[in-house]
Task: structure prediction
Amino acid sequence: MKIVILDGYTANPGDLSWDHFHALGEVTIYDRTAPEDTLNRCAGAEIIVVNKHLITAELIRQLPQLRCICVTATGFNNVDTTAARAANIPVCNVVGYSTPAVVQHVFALVFTLTNKCQLHHDSVQAGDWSRSLDFSYQLAPIKELSGLTMGIYGFGRIGQGVAAVAQAFGMSILTTHKHPERDARPGVRFVDLETLFSESDIISLHAPLSSSNREIVNASLLQRMRPTAYLINTGRGPLINEQDLAEALKRGLLAGAGLDVLSEEPPSADNPLIDAPNCIITPHNAWGSRDARARLLADTVENIQGFQNDQPRNVVN
Result:
């Protein structure tokens, strides 16, 4: 069976093995694929493996041999699932592989904002501690998490993981979620979105992107935040109106933001958040610990094996 991996670099930049894929058939791996090369590279492929590369309806129509599309991610909006279903092609994703990594990254961003480690490290490197008259000093206040309120927008696996860690730090939990009865947890209070933003000290976004919540974090919600509060986004960049957030940070409507995702990736050089005050940005790598990527590839192998055994798994269409 001919298998083509169109954009393998982000999932495996070289620190993991592709051997399990090669055992499944005739495998061709490309680190990246330009749009104009897609059709030629996929010609004759029965299985396509993609991470973020676009698989359009037009492409699907031009690939009569194509029988399965495997996405090395949880999100699958880069694939025209409707066109795939019409062609009787299952689209299989991977869920749950990155939960520990993303939860950890949420708190890495939180600590960057609250503990000011980089600020003080830079000060020490500049010789400030060596010249200090005191054994200890603070360039900015350090905030304890204990006693604060964590607001979580979206209470799926990752949101629940964030809540568990936050509770371990002694935080109270508020969340906005579609299924409060199904996902009730001890110590978790379900509230509306306006309450979440007005009563939380830290807000972490974990809801999947949809047409109904695109740019849901806008000037109206940001104005409800406490000036001492922080906004964390490791979910989807388009959940936030970036111009509104940049303006809110400039006006001091919130204390800071920690972002792992932006509306356009890679971002344009003039993205308003890149030089916004008190805004920490990482390049969409919360999901990408080596352990998480190993789980991702292993589960993708199982998806391919399931399809080959006429038992497709994780089918989203």
